[in-house]
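Hello,

Our lab assistant flagged a job as stuck in the queue for most of the afternoon. It eventually completed. Since we weren't sure the result was trustworthy after the delay, we are filing this so someone can double-check. Below is the sequence as submitted and the structure that was eventually returned. Let us know if re-running is recommended.
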Amino acid sequence: MSNYVIILVASILAGATNAIAGGGTLITFPALVWVGVNPLSANITNTVALWTGSVTGAWGFKERLVRTKHLLKILIFPSLFGGILGAYLLMITPQKVFNFVVPFLVLFATIILALNDRINKFNLKEGEDIKKKSLVFVFILQFLTSLYGGYFAAGIGILMLATLGIAGITDIYTANGIKNVLSLFINITSGLVLLFSGKVEWPFAIILMIGFALGGYLGAKISQKFDSKKVKSFVILWGIILAIVFWIRGV
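-- returned structure --
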């Protein structure tokens, strides 16, 4: 099997995983390293290519985004700014420093997601106006998530699903739609910064874009055929797996 076929298959699986839960980079990152790309270039190449999966993933959930336009408008700014700043930090900061924190971030977000139903008892139901206090907290969380996403994208979907749960978005499919839209802004801004790094492996980046796009749409469509509780359980299980693997591998 050629290196390009390996990356295409990995990116389709990763695109589907990102559309449903997040963490698809855990598939493509080691695949790139496996075919000979150095870890830093693999990370940067992944980030530059991720935006296509966010586009098709969001499109697959488009019917569920109509009622959440207000929240989307509020969270676009922290997504853009956080993505830019995260990508800049990737350019200047030793990756080992941040790698130590990654498994704890993902595990924390997964625990919050698992407790969303209880957390939401203290928040407003979906469709109601969000209280200013909750909105400020969600705004800050989205900025921090975007900062993380601009630096290392794996697990960003789980972090955003947890944040959206706090905002009162209790339906996993609606949350997935919003997550994919916000991921698009994060990935585009961070990708634009990293374009000038000189470390993008373009042949692989193009293959990744195609695979992410196919997988993103397929994942969005297929996931909606399952019971929302089962999808949420999958997200939680995947988050725990991600945290353990990140801790063992040191990312």
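-- support follow-up --
The delay was a queue issue, not a problem with the job. The result is valid. The radius of gyration is 17 Å. Residues 124 and 131 are 8 Å apart (CA to CA).
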